[in-house]
Amino acid sequence: MSALRVGVLAYPGCFASEVFGVPDLLTMAAHVAGPDRSGYEVSVASPRRRVTASGGAALAVAPLREVDVLVVPGFELVPGLDVDAKLAALAPEIAAIRSHTAAGNAVVSICVGAFLLAEAGLLDGRRATTAWLLADELAQRCPEADVRPECLVVTDKGVTTTAAFSAMYDFALELIRRHSGADVARATARVTLVDDARSSQTPYVDARLLPQPGDEFSRRVMRRLDQDLAARYDLAALADAFGVSTRTLLRRFADETGRSPLEYLQSSRVRRARHLLETTDRTVAGISATVGYKDPGTFAALFAKHTGQRPSDYRAAFRRGADRRGAD
């Protein structure tokens, strides 16, 4: 089996860590596999002679050439950035992506690199993902794509997209698994302290960082619900508090937010429970009662629906504080 040719497409403003993350893990995998197994031929290439990455890091780049897998890193997508202008300035890179895939070779984007793939027309009619924080924006820019914000890595007909930053390692481990074998991928993960058991980015979603839809009416309803998360949900009493019918409350809230007051309350309860699981030693049953659920089983099912994990598993993965320090 010949060496797998992997190229990273460097471009102005790309994240330097995402340029070198995959190549570095492949280098480690080659060491783990040993000389008897085929390795990886890795290059950092660009249609430009000089490339300066994020943070002003100058990158040494080679001319573009044919590779088996082309990796497209992401860039800093900050509020207020003119994404159209950014992508227009990357026309040579987008043309290179199109040329690469037209030859029948695989392409993978890291995080916001999916926006370049979308601009190249590669996500139309395909499943895709990106950082959960930017998934809605990708879906709006590329309505023909089936954006899956819960997924870490999505491959559809030769096009792979990943979630943010560290998801490049989830992709790289899968690439190592396919090319070098499951044993090499497993050993590489152990040597480099990379988690090879993740399956979703849902547990990492922090709804407080997402744009909050809604106008003044729905925001007042949200504040009232947040004041006492343990209180029994009473739609009639809630509507009465705002001087409207239950039908009007549901319609106005849905028009402004796209969901019901109960759905908002459930997500708010889960958000509070996540915080308590991360920062306290309270039992799951105690936390369940604190956020309004007398039955821990009902609470656990709702928590798993929102986060993809049972409460005890979430605590084990994200617990902060004294027990973590004590384990050091």
Short description:
The protein has 328 residues and is of the alpha/beta class.
Largest sheet: 6 strands, mixed
Number of strands: 10
Portion of residues in helices? Answer: 40-55%
Q: Strand fraction band?
A: 5-15%
One letter per element, helices H and strands E, the order comes to EHEEEEHHEHEHEEEHHHHHHHHHH
Mean pLDDT: 91
Determine the N-to-C terminus distance: 42 Å
The low-pLDDT segments are 322-328
What's the gyration radius in Å?
A: 23 Å
Structural class by SSE content: alpha/beta
| Strand order in space, largest sheet | 2-1-5-6-10-9
Shape, please?
Answer: globular
Topology:
Elements: E1 4-9, H1 16-33, E2 40-45, E3 51-52, E4 58-59, E5 69-72, H2 83-89, H3 91-102, E6 106-109, H4 113-119, E7 127-128, H5 135-141, E8 146-147, E9 153-156, E10 159-162, H6 167-180, H7 182-192, H8 216-227, H9 235-241, H10 246-257, H11 261-279, H12 284-290, H13 296-307, H14 311-318, H15 322-327
Parallel strand pairs: 1-2, 1-5, 5-6, 6-10, 7-8
Antiparallel strand pairs: 3-4, 9-10
How would you characterize this protein structure?
The protein has 328 residues and is of the alpha/beta class. It is 48% helix and 11% strand. It has helices spanning 16-33, 83-89, 91-102, 113-119, 135-141, 167-180, 182-192, 216-227, 235-241, 246-257, 261-279, 284-290, 296-307, 311-318, 322-327; strands at residues 4-9, 40-45, 51-52, 58-59, 69-72, 106-109, 127-128, 146-147, 153-156, 159-162. It has a six-stranded mixed sheet, sandwiched between helices. A hairpin with a 2-residue loop joins strand 9 and strand 10. The longest helix is centred in the last third of the chain and has 19 residues, at 261-279. Mean pLDDT is 91; it is low at 322-328.
